[in-house]
Design a protein that fits this description.
This protein has one helix and four strands, in the order ββββα. A two-stranded antiparallel sheet has the order 1-2. Strands 3-4 form a two-stranded antiparallel sheet. β3 and β4 form a beta hairpin. It starts with a strand and ends with a helix. Keywords: Membrane, Transmembrane, Transmembrane helix.
């Protein structure tokens, strides 16, 4: 414990108008009860007082870092590369669509 200030007249006696300040520093690893006792004598009378302070030491929490969720695209069975165009699907489908269109146009003309 270390005296900081308060003895304004320098007589080493706590006067009615004085407030003495002390400090104490310690590293705590668990919850601790701090008890301070002060006593004195004056005019044949003895006095004693105390103060209690509880310092709560709690475990620190590690906050979870939010993870970005990226939705996945559906699996179409086609390669994901943009350079590889699935001609094996596009060409037959296009031919079938053109033949179907041609069939309906010819059917309408003969009807």
């Amino acid at each position: 414990m270390k005296y900081v200030s308060g003895d304004t007249n320098g007589n080493s006696k706590l006067d009615i108008t004085e407030t003495w300040v002390y400090t104490c520093q310690s590293t705590l690893t668990k919850t601790t009860v701090n008890t301070v006792t002060a006593s004195g004598e004056a005019n044949g009378l003895k006095v004693k007082d105390f103060a209690i302070a509880t310092v709560v030491v709690a475990a620190t929490r590690t906050l979870a870092v939010p993870v970005a969720v990226v939705p996945k695209l559906p699996d179409t069975g086609l390669p994901p590369s943009e350079k590889n165009i699935p001609w094996n699907i596009i060409v037959p489908t296009s031919i079938f669509a053109m033949l179907t269109l041609f069939y309906f146009v010819r059917r309408k003309q003969t009807a």
